[in-house]
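## tool: complex_structure
## caller: assistant
## args:
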Amino acid sequence: MTTQALVSEIKKKQSFLCIGLDVDLTKIPSHLLEVDDPIFEFNKAIIKATHHLCVAYKPNIAFYEAYGLKGWKSLEKTINYINKNHPEIFTIADAKRGDIGNTSSMYAKAFFEDLDFDSVTVAPYMGKDSIEPFLEFPGKHAIMLALTSNQGAFDFQTLTTDGQPLYQTVLETSKRWKNSDQLMYVVGATKASYFAEIRKILPDSFLLVPGIGTQGGSLAEVCNYGMNNQVGLLVNSSRGIIYASSDFDFASQAAQKAKALQSEMAKILADYF
Amino acid sequence: MTTQALVSEIKKKQSFLCIGLDVDLTKIPSHLLEVDDPIFEFNKAIIKATHHLCVAYKPNIAFYEAYGLKGWKSLEKTINYINKNHPEIFTIADAKRGDIGNTSSMYAKAFFEDLDFDSVTVAPYMGKDSIEPFLEFPGKHAIMLALTSNQGAFDFQTLTTDGQPLYQTVLETSKRWKNSDQLMYVVGATKASYFAEIRKILPDSFLLVPGIGTQGGSLAEVCNYGMNNQVGLLVNSSRGIIYASSDFDFASQAAQKAKALQSEMAKILADYF
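## result:
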């Protein structure tokens, strides 16, 4: 999917919500554990109830790999279900991959060809030749870690290099890579005041923003500092939406939580556009 | 597996060779493409021919994920085969994972519980709380990227922070993490002269060294700078061994390449111990 198509969808739905599909069998309603594929059935119900409120879904790959073959099968069914029924929705394989060039090419093949995701999250530590293979697929995107929402972000990402924090050097350097217009970036909502600095370096890029909800970030603050003239934000909520209830009403409760965020987003969009 | 058991095995086999199982269907002998599970059959033949010459196997997870469900099944069969037939061999899931804490826990569960690997490679960019979940499993190890073998290593890993290269800060910081005695580190063979600096920071840790062979690193140089009094090195070769021949004799040719490296290692061990 092109970023233009994503922007159109955001304006149409009045939403820049991304819903994280981090399915943990210990947290989903117990009645689902009796069906053949609980993870997929859970996802399908969540997607049916929320697809009109969000513009992106982000399965967190770890939660599928933890269940081995069965988990990978649930992931495959989930992405196929989204692509078939809601092709207008942007899909993100949250995988944080990155390796030497020929290996990154294999990961890109896994997520862009075998599974037909629109994008995959990647880690920058190994540099240019570990990321560029993800940018060789037309219409596909790599979403690179810049400044993450966890406490460990302060271990290395904010260290000073060449007179500025490492994450800023990462952003500046990545702009020079081949097909860098297909890059988006992960910036945690828990660090809202940093968005102003990031927008100086990346006025046009899309930012994927985790950390709203459970992790404590504020939507209004993120938008205040982070929005650009094409919106330029995908704000993710995972546990705050999908685990709104652990009972039979889980999907409708998830939709209510999603609706609350979408309404807040619609108001913000009305103020800015 | 404990590091003590690994050291015993190294001394017994006179080898610190790790063989990388990076199986690419476009590179394996064509007669294998006709069998039910070509990737597993290829691995099984390589393992049968080389297990007495090496102390570790390292499947590169990307190469399995690229084939989706089938690939994950081949991976599962490969690790089960090694654990059943050669439990003395140290196994490495080369996955370069790392995410916020609850997600890293799921990756750890995937590789240490669902698949029973001894270790998994991890990326440091997200800091302490992204790595510590991998260190909570007794007898299991996280192998963290420090200085990698690719050109992109110079993009960020060698940038100066606090008067020293970033990778050195990464090493020093990680020593303070919980259960850091279960950490090992990836250091590329293509940067042999850096090993002296790394050994000042990490006199005792095991280093996993890719980059011998296809990528151009020298075994003698790596040992000269990087060996410690417990050997402390696992030197990996992937393509140089497993693709020695693409004909019916691929396994015996792989064994010859492995034997050549093991002999070189035995000579070095004789000089040092």
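## assistant note: The longest strand of chain A covers residues 90-97. Chain A has twelve helices and ten strands. Handing back to user.
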